Amino acid sequence: MAVLAAALGLPLAPLAAPAQAAAAGARPVVTRAALDPALVAGRGARVGFAEQEAENAATDGTVIGPDRAAYTLPAEASGRRAVRLTPGQHVEFTLPAAANAITVRYSIPDAPSGGGITAPLDVAVNGRRTATMTLTSQYSWLYNQYPFTNDPGADLLHPDWWITECSCVPAATTPAPAIAKPFRPSHFYDEQRLPLGRTYRAGDRIRLTASSGAAWTVVDLLDSELVAPPRIEPRAANVLAFGADPTGRRESSAAFDRAVAFARRAHLKVYVPPGTYQVNRHIVVDDVTIIGAGSWYTIIKGRQVTLDTPAPDGSVHTGVGFYGKDAKDGGSRNVHLSGFAIEGDVRERIDTDQVNGIGGAMSDSTIEGLYIHHTKVGLWFDGPMSGARVTGNVIADQIADGLNFHTGVTGSVVSHTFVRNSGDDGLAMWSERTANARNTFDHNTVQTPVLANGIALYGGTDNTVSANLIADPVREGSALQVGSRFGAEPFAGRLDITGNTTVRAGTYELNWNIGLGAIWFYALEHDIDADVRVTGDHYLDNTYNAVMLVADWPVKDLYSIKNLHFEDIRVDGTGTSVLSARAAGSATFANVDARNVGAVPVNNCGTFHFTPAGSEFSLADGGGNDGWLASWLLPNTLTCDDRPPVTPPPAPSPW
After folding, report:
1. Does the predicted TM-score (pTM) go above 0.85?
2. Is the CB of residue 344 less than 8 Å from the CB of residue 357?
3. In this structure, are strands 99-107 and 58-59 parallel, antiparallel, or unpaired?
4. How is 339-399 classified by DSSP, letter by letter?
5. DSSP reduced 3-state for 261
6. How far apart are CA 299 and CA 139, in angstroms?
7. What is the pLDDT of residues 478-522, one digit of tens each?
8. By the 8 A CB rule, do 545 and 643 touch?
9. Burial class (CB in 10 A: 0-12, 13-18, 19+), 111
10. What single-letter DSSP state applies at residue 612?
11. C-beta separation of 419 from 377 below 8 A
């Protein structure tokens, strides 16, 4: 009922006692993914901002959460808690370091019939009103079944699908079940950046006060940072010289095209000085460098445009984006993009639409220091292509993935990139038709993917996922997934998953009616039998299992998961088991330490045949395991509880 009331903009009952405004915000609490930074030292993206959770700040509002059930406001909040303000209430943060810019992550109600509202939020520093942010819910609030709708009153999009809510197929059920509307509201949050106009010192107080423009305002967190002065490139093809409008009033796509063409002929870079530039279509780039003054200063913003007729690729819209040439046309090379923001206008998910921030094929190219917001996918690369380097970017509030290496991407790296509030996988490698190979996702942070996984690998050869921080997946996904699905080529060679930290991971899988693991291996279309090495990962505060291995029921006797090797792993807190095996196969465990385990440490169902010889999945003890792998569980004792009770784990602490 709370989510239904929220969807309609009605008052919500408090979920927790009001936070005390007295001393709570006097000393700033800086976190990373709502954790003590010491717990994730050396892991995740290197970013220029300090994260402060609203629930740790001074407020006269109400702390909501914790909650990990999908379709609730606290479940989609960082750390699964936030602060709810009614008009006139505030939350006040104390700056931990000098800052001249802030980012606020928030939620306000949808319009009763969908489409969003706007509402002001007052910003004061040290008691003096400084600015007003105009919050919006136009880019949030999705409903219903995949691929979702903006209409809270819509009937089921797929009445012929099985749904958990009635444990039935509504179209095949007599009498038809009554499905409450809005059905499955989600994607509640958005974020907004605000330059403060001057530099404030550590200890100064930033107060956010809700207005009467919205029945309630939920503040999740505040990021504060000291933004460097704008970059100047005097020896470059300046887009202003080619007619670009830095006020954003006139469309500047043609001016960008002219600047790019001239720069290629003259062997110059393209420079985009401070300003907001209206660009409502793709800028095709090849063998060119485009540099902005910095993502806080150079903003390339576009409207979504409906095409008169669908494009050959199926797109029915276009919008702002920088695209390499199509791989079938040879792709693009030597593209270098840095130092600007891409602000899209995507409010619905249409899978055929090419309305991504970055797209196409870009070999031997670099994407660095971009802020990508409100596009469908931040960066979607369609290979074959090789040698891309994606570093130091921020990707926020996407309708679908944060980044996807799709089809034949090789020798490429994504590092120190921060992804928050993606509508699908945060970072993905998808080997559809052609294998991705020798790619690395290293030192990235993925927070609150609303659907699916933090980092997902669908097939591929000799890839690496290392030193990432993944937090708070919300629905039908895990922090890390290794999946043989979506038409992907089989896994081959070696897959290294090393030195990652996950927290509050493992969601409820609607279709199976079970909880998933922080890391999830899924054999749906092939065996998973590459040399998989999971080394040095930390799985913290797991909602259900730490490790989950699944072969879907129709193929459980066809495909297996084997040749897995886990070593030097720490598991701190599980709602259920350390390992849940629902497939045939085998794995070796060495120096895997676990504590605060909520249920039987190994939930070994195998393929559910319950043979006299035991489970079809076997475990090998490589030595040094502590807190979970008792000898009686080896090699394949049946310990099957299909849906074990959940014991919420304690908060993570130093090992």
Report:
1. yes
2. yes
3. unpaired
4. S-EEE----S--TT----SEEE-EET-EEES-EEESSS-SEEEESSEE--EEES-EEES-S
5. helix
6. 18
7. 999 999 999 999 999 999 999 999 999 999 998 898 999 999 999
8. no
9. middle
10. T
11. no
